[in-house]
Amino acid sequence: MKPDTIIIVATVASHLRNFHLPWVRHLRAAGFKVIGGACDIQECADCRAVFDETVTLPFSRSMFSWRQAFQAGRELRRLVVRSGAILVHVHTPNAAFWGRLGLARVQTLKVAYTAHGFHFHQGGLGLANRIYRAAEQWAARFTDALITINQEDYLAAKDFRLRPGGRVEIIPGIGLDFARFQPQSATVRGVEGALRDSWKLPAGVPLVLMVAEFIPRKRHRDFLMAMARCENRRFHAVFAGDGIGLDSAKLLSQQLGLSDRVRYLGFRRDVPELLAAADLLVLPCEREGLPVCVMEALAMNKPVIGANARGTRDLLAPDCGWLHEVGDVKMLAEQIDYVLSHPDEARQRAGQGRKRILAEYGWEPVRDKLIDIYRRLGIMVKS
Questions:
Q1: Which of 302, 329, 341, 379 has the fewest CB within 10 Å, making it most exposed?
Q2: Is residue 381 part of a domain?
């Protein structure tokens, strides 16, 4: 008997690789054929190894690449017809919007959309917020399950009108692999000293880590400006990530006289090891879906300072870390000084955060919630 087919789509393959391959494996083990689609998916060896089939869909990172977007939506519709898929699960705003529009007239298909952070958000620019909200509201009418991962997006989506019988859901993120983020892991702890030695850090010097792509909304600038204001002049900062804003951040650190205390590592896959070497994680980002680096830090029993923004506050409030208002450099500096000078309280809050992460944000709760959502759509996935 031919297996039922499910298509999972994102704008870029890295999103599928980083967040959804465990779910793909589960679906395949449950007897489904799973097809992956993204603009660059043929370049992703991990995706090709895990999906039954991979298909290039020319989605663009730009919401306004109209011609390319319409083409991608048409090709997704053709893929559905060719494969006989019973469900398309879309991720990332551009692929989700144009993909759902392309599938609007496919009557027998179920469509699920996981919003990993709407482009509109509290504190966003008025016109942009209205445009993005209107786009999400329009596409929601072609959606059977709209899945959110934080409270702000969940409450916003409750006002959308979905297909008849459609539901708005909330799940605890993408599911953290706790096996990789064990604070007492011999493998992780064994490289801590080697990393500090490679960075030529004197013994006892505190290390503050930021893990984020160098794009404006991550607000690396806020961290550097706060670092220049801190009373503690001993700690060093390490940035893991790459992106269009990297050169600007390097220039700013030079202008602020911080070059001898700042290291830029580029894209890294050894985040558990970096966290083991760090004393504190900072994330001043203005909006998130549900920040994985914060979950990873808390799983590693590390204190976290974050901006009081969507996603981040879901993880840190009320007493699992420290929150400052977005853009408040003075308060961020004060919090860094406070956390580094109060190690007992830092450990206490990190411990509370670890308990929350272990209880709520592992892979099993996410998997079980997705199984329930799929079953309500008539897709009977085995546990």
A1: 341
A2: no
Distance from C-alpha of 12 to C-alpha of 58, rounded to nearest angstrom: 9
In a domain, 382, yes or no: no
Query: Are residue 303 and residue 328 in the same domain, yes or no?
Result: yes
C-alpha span between 17 and 13 (Å, rounded): 6
Same domain, 231 and 279: yes
User: Phi and psi for 280 in degrees, rounded to 5?
Assistant: -160, 140
Cα separation of 134 and 140, whole Å? Answer: 10
Q: What are phi and psi of 368, to 5 degrees?
A: -65, -40
> What is the number of domains present in the chain?
2
The least confident of 63-67, 246-250, 287-291, 322-326 is 63-67
Statement to judge: residues 164 and 132 lie in one domain: yes
CB 111, CB 85: distance < 8 Å: no
End-to-end CA distance of the chain: 21
| Token pair belonging to 326 | 């977005």
How many other C-beta atoms are found inside a 10 Å radius of the C-beta of residue 54?
Answer: 20
pLDDT (average), residues 172-184: 88
Closest to 280 in 3D by CA, of 345, 365, 198: 345
242 and 290 in a single domain? The answer is yes
State the DSSP string of 315-331.
HHTTTTSEEE-TT-HHH
Do 26 and 164 lie in one domain? The reply is yes
* Token pair listed for 254: 């030079």
What is the span of the domain harbouring residue 48?
A: 5-175+362-376
Residue with tokens 């700042």: 262
Neighbouring C-alpha atoms within 13 Å toward the C-beta of 53: 15
Could you give the CA distance from residue 369 to residue 367 in angstroms, rounded to a whole number? 5
User: What's the average model confidence in pLDDT over 293-307?
Assistant: 97
Gap between the Cα atoms of 65 and 46, Å rounded: 28
Residues 70 and 210 in one domain: no
